[in-house]
Amino acid sequence: xxxxxxxxxxxxxGGSLRLSCTTSGFTFSSYAMGWARQVPGKGPEWVSGIxxxxxxxxxxxxxxxxxxxxxxxxxxxxxxMSSLKSEDTAVYYCKQRSIWGQGTQVxxxx
Length: 110
Hints:
There is one protein chain. With about 110 residues, the chain is an all-beta fold. Helices cover about 0% and strands about 50% of the residues. The protein has strands spanning about 1-5, 10, 15-25, 35-40, 45-50, 55-60, 65-70, 75-80, 90-95, 100, 105-110. The model has no long low-confidence stretch (mean pLDDT about 95).
């Protein structure tokens, strides 16, 4: 099983980024997927998830600003992030159950 995140970077407050999680080694359409983030010195924070039926759920801190989606044909999960704030700065990880990707850094700063 491999999960590879991409799309992170530096963005100004109020800006947008789209993260991608490219997967392999399992039947993507049969698994729920999720995103979590972590700031150095703190524990991981769950951000969002998408079930196999496409239903979604979000933490209160990102609800209304982030959108999770999945493309079962391409085996990719996405996290569209809008109205970004400095407190969104973190390493973002794609998750499939207990399996994590290597993470991608998102920095929100002017």
